[in-house]
Specification:
- By secondary structure, this protein is α+β, with helices and mostly antiparallel strands.
- It has a domain at 72-218: Protein Transport Mog1p, Chain A (3-Layer(aba) Sandwich).
- Helix content is 26%, strand content 24%.
- The chain has five helices and ten strands; from the N terminus they run H-H-E-E-E-E-E-H-E-E-E-E-H-H-E.
- Helix 1 (2-12) packs antiparallel against helix 2 (31-50).
- It is extended, with a radius of gyration of 38 Å.
- The relative contact order is 0.15.
- Mean pLDDT is 74; it is low at 1-27, 49-67 and 79-95.
Length: 220
C-alpha cells in the first residue's frame, strides 16, 4: 500500500535535481524537496493507520465470549456409598412395604400412596410424575453411551447437579425440589427411575427416593 503511494507521487511530481525561480523576488522549494516532504507526510499517515490493531492483529484484544449455563458435576470415587462393586446401587434400607412396579427390564418398590408407574408414568403422593424404565446393554461401551446421553441432555441446565459413581449416574434439579433422574447399571441392562416436578417437591417426598433407588433390580 505504501509502495503504491510512493509510485503515484513519483509520477505526479518528478524530481529535477535543481531549483527554478519564477520571480527575482519570490522563490519556491525545489521540486525534489517538495516531493520528498509530501512523501514523508504521506508515509507517516499510512504507517499510523497500519499500526492500529484490527481483527487480524494477534495482539488485539480477544472478543469476549460468554458460556451458557452448565450443570454442576460430582464424580464419586469407587467404593463410596451409592456405588456398588457389581455395578448396581447399594441396597441399603430396602423395605418390603409399598407397591411393586415393573417394566420389561426393571422393577422397584414405591410408597403406598403413589399411583401407577411401571409401563406408564405414575403420580406421587405430592402430585408429581414418576416413571420406571430400562433397556439392554450390549457391553461396557453401551453403558458409557447411556451415561453420555444423559449427561449431554442435562449438562446445560444451570439448576442441575450431576453425580457420577461406579455403576450409576444421578441428576437432581434445584437441589431435588425440581426432580430426579437416577440411571443404574446392572449386568446386562440399565434401569431409570425419574421424578418430574409439578411444582416444588417437598423434603418428605424426596426422602422416599433413596429406598426406591435401592430397590431397583432387573426384572427377570
Amino acid at each position: 500500500m505504501i509502495a503504491g503511494a510512493f509510485v503515484m507521487l513519483l509520477r505526479v511530481v518528478p524530481f529535477t535535481g535543481r531549483a527554478r525561480h519564477t520571480s527575482p523576488h519570490r522563490s519556491r522549494l525545489p521540486p525534489s524537496r517538495a516531493a520528498l516532504m509530501m512523501l514523508c507526510g504521506l508515509a507517516a499517515l499510512l504507517l499510523a493507520a497500519c499500526g492500529s490493531s484490527g481483527p487480524n492483529d494477534p495482539t488485539a484484544e480477544p472478543e469476549s465470549t460468554t458460556s451458557g449455563p452448565t450443570a454442576r458435576v460430582i464424580t464419586l470415587p469407587d467404593g463410596t456409598p451409592g456405588a456398588a462393586p457389581d455395578g448396581g446401587p447399594v441396597p441399603t434400607g430396602v423395605s418390603g412395604n409399598g407397591q411393586h412396579i415393573s417394566d420389561p427390564f426393571c422393577q422397584a418398590r414405591i410408597p403406598a400412596g403413589w399411583v401407577g408407574g411401571g409401563a406408564s408414568p405414575g403420580t406421587t403422593a405430592g402430585g408429581h410424575t414418576f416413571s420406571l424404565f430400562g433397556g439392554r446393554l450390549a457391553g461396557p461401551e453401551s453403558w458409557e453411551r447411556a451415561v453420555e446421553l444423559l449427561r449431554g441432555q442435562t449438562a446445560n441446565r444451570a439448576d442441575a447437579e450431576i453425580t457420577e459413581g461406579e455403576g450409576f449416574i444421578r441428576v437432581t434439579f434445584a437441589g431435588g425440589a425440581g426432580g430426579l433422574i437416577h440411571r443404574a447399571r446392572f449386568e446386562d441392562r440399565y434401569c431409570d427411575f425419574r421424578v418430574q416436578a409439578r411444582g416444588a417437591i417437598s423434603e418428605a417426598e424426596r426422602a422416599s427416593w433413596e429406598p426406591i433407588v435401592a430397590s431397583l433390580a432387573p426384572n427377570e
